[in-house]
# Entry
Amino acid sequence: QVQLVESGGGYVQAGGSLRLSCAASGGIFSTIMGWYRQAPGKQRELVASITSGGGANYADSVKGRFTISRDNAKNSVYLQMNSLKPEDTAVYYCNADRIFFMGGFKYDCWGQGTRVTVSS
# Structure
């Protein structure tokens, strides 16, 4: 079964850092991968995305603080979050546009979410 498995969330004070990881288990290759977040009472928003070739895109609110990267050999994507602010508090979700496996692909895959809490 193809699924995205996230790890790395937690509790940190403002100014601190966290690194999120997401592995596409059961898959061979993923196209665009990204991180979204949803804060209480707000809509889910794109944080950052990265193509298979390494081209990255960031939300304005995280530019200069967050870095997205991926390891195609491990079919994984990461989010390094530095200089965290209380407004970064949210549940973070990993997403893959398409995950290819033997015999097919799965479209628009989501992880279960990992919670990030930043205290002031």
Notes: The CA atoms of residues 14 and 85 lie 5 Å apart. The mean pLDDT is 95. The longest strand covers residues 90-101.
